[in-house]
Amino acid sequence: MHIPDGFLTTNTWLPAWVVSAGGIGYCVRRTSRLLKERMIPLMGVMAAFIFAAQMLNFPVMGGTSGHLIGAVFAAILLGPYAAAVVMTVVLIAQCLIFQDGGLTALGANVLNMAILGPACGYFIYNIIRRTIKGNAGMIAGAALASWASVVIAASTCALELSASGTSPFPVVFPAMVFIHAAIGIGEAVITCVMVSLVLKVRPDLIYQKDARPFGRRDLVFGLAIAAILFLLAPFASKFPDGLERAAKDLGFAAEVK
Predict the structure, then answer these.
(1) Which end of the chain is less congested by CB atoms within 10 angstroms, N or C?
(2) pLDDT exceeding 90 applies to what percent of the chain?
(3) CA distance 13 to 111
(4) Can you list the domains of the chain with their CATH numbers?
(5) CA angle 11, 16, 19 (to 5 degrees)
């Protein structure tokens, strides 16, 4: 869902940059207030994990692929503010190193996936977690929140494309939502598996006010998983992702990087 350069006009990407800069600035201030010894290495591991996991596209339907966004998983472990900072770091690295998403569109990508994803996802997760007690509530909340985070990000992306005149709203909105509703199912399954694993192995890593330190063994284990995912990247699905598929089907771009 990384928007490339050329898809958004200045009257869209510039306000997105302003909103994203203000939003991430606020998240950085909130994170600095909440920052604990355990969160620093955990944020680093989470950034490495999401960076690697987003390289692994999985097929969903009709020659389309999707990849994990990871915003809700990050929010469940770090809280929504630190998750937004981590997601922003990942998106900047992807943009500058792999040209995955355009530089002018970076503000929109940060808004969609790094701000709205963790914020809306954690809000939904928290409601369900408090309604359904215990691990079942956490897993159910993770499932619905992660699916919704993908659909919300796709919906906002469609609004940005429509505002730029790239594609009419009645055409691009249902196309983006339909494709990413399917991709969101994969996001939900992967997130639930990871949250279930954390609950079994280190339930204290779930974001809360008082938590055990994130130890050296945890750091090595987390980085090892990220390295394995990175090595698996060549085996990722070669099908176009949701935005690429929508662009191809609707004819507003021949190719999306």
Answers:
(1) C
(2) 56
(3) 10
(4) 10-250 (1.10.1760.20)
(5) 130
Closest listed residue to residue 23, CA positions, set 105, 113, 84, 87: 84
Q: What is the pTM of this model?
A: 0.86
Q: Which residue has the higher pLDDT, 229 or 187?
A: 187
Task: Give the type of residue at 34.
Answer: L
What percentage of the chain has pLDDT greater than the value 70? 83
What does the buried/exposed string (b/e) look like for 181-195 if buried means 16 or more CB atoms within 10 Å of the residue's CB?
bebbbbbbebbbebb
Question: 83: which 2 tokens?
Answer: 């998750």
Among 75, 70, 50, smallest CA distance to 205 is for: 75
Helices (H), the chain: 10-34, 39-53, 71-78, 80-98, 106-109, 117-131, 134-163, 169-201, 216-231, 242-250
